[in-house]
Specification:
globular, six-stranded mixed beta sheet, alpha+beta, 10 helices, three-stranded antiparallel beta sheet
Length: 276
């Protein structure tokens, strides 16, 4: 049994109190730090604590029980502020072909750890969420807000229930060992979720719980290329997609973890040459 598991869902015992999306009314954003952007959708359940979350150039005071819908290419917070204490964040990542989750825990001293490292769930519920989300995106902002609950409350409740079922099954199966294929897939999904940013072998070791050299060996055997080369390919796809959508080099450099525009462009030229 994972510690404190029974207390995780207290905020949701009577359902989902509040859903926040890109159209929701928030406070003016005062942070100067460039926000994160992704090609995939994300859903954040706040299981414990209170914080301030930037989304779509607005800021929201959030607490346990809130759910945040982060659409593709919508600016949102990267990392956690120093003020976050005693928090539990449940992140769902809706990739094109799979659904993953990650559970971040922040203790009373502000230290971030992984209460659950990287979990892949069945993708059938993701298909429902994506279909509803696509329809939701076709609505005007005002109409969308008026119908936010109708579109999302039930599938979000089912998503939370799917996670609780995963925990129950995990407990019943006594946490069976992951196969090599599971480990490799986890590494690939982490890199895609983070657009290759902060994906050093040391960080991947923390996220997966497996030795970095073991991970490198498995990945090379599975895909025929080193992890570093796969990270570059993911970054190139993001760079080219973001440019087509009108994002500046400064925004792209921040998202990919480069210190300046010139460092980004120098990397891009060299990376493109290597994969030709």
């Amino acid at each position: 049994m994972i510690p404190e598991e029974k207390e995780w869902f207290t905020a949701f015992r009577r359902g989902i109190p509040r859903i926040i999306c890109k159209h929701s009314d928030g406070l003016p954003q005062t942070e100067n730090v460039p926000p994160g952007i992704h090609q995939h959708r994300e859903i954040l359940f706040i299981l414990r604590g209170e914080s301030r979350f930037p989304l779509n150039h607005k800021t929201f005071d959030v607490k346990a029980g809130d759910v945040i819908l982060i659409d593709r290419w919508i600016p949102h917070r990267v990392g956690y502020p120093d003020s976050d204490r005693n928090m539990l964040y449940l992140w769902f990542f809706l990739f094109p072909t799979h659904l993953n989750l990650l559970l971040h825990q922040i203790d009373h001293d502000g230290k971030v750890s992984y209460a659950l490292k990287w979990v892949e769930l069945a993708a059938d519920l993701k298909l429902v969420l994506d279909r509803r989300w696509d329809e939701f995106d076709r609505l005007s902002p005002q109409t969308a807000l008026e119908n936010l609950d109708a579109f999302f409350r039930l599938p979000l409740t089912m998503l939370l229930d799917e996670f609780q079922l995963y925990l129950r099954l995990k407990d019943l199966r006594m946490a069976k060992n992951q196969s090599n294929n599971d480990i490799v897939n986890s590494v690939r999904h982490i890199i895609e979720a983070k657009n290759g940013r902060d994906c050093s072998l040391a960080q991947l070791e923390k996220l997966t719980g497996f030795n970095r050299y073991y991970i490198s060996h498995l990945f090379k055997d599975a895909y025929g290329i080193p992890i570093g080369e796969y990270i570059n390919r993911v970054r190139i796809i993001f760079f080219e997609s973001a440019k087509k959508r009108g994002f500046s080099h400064k925004q792209i450099a921040f998202e990919l973890g480069f210190s300046s525009n010139s460092a980004l462009l120098m990397w891009y030229r060299k990376a493109k040459e290597r994969i030709r």
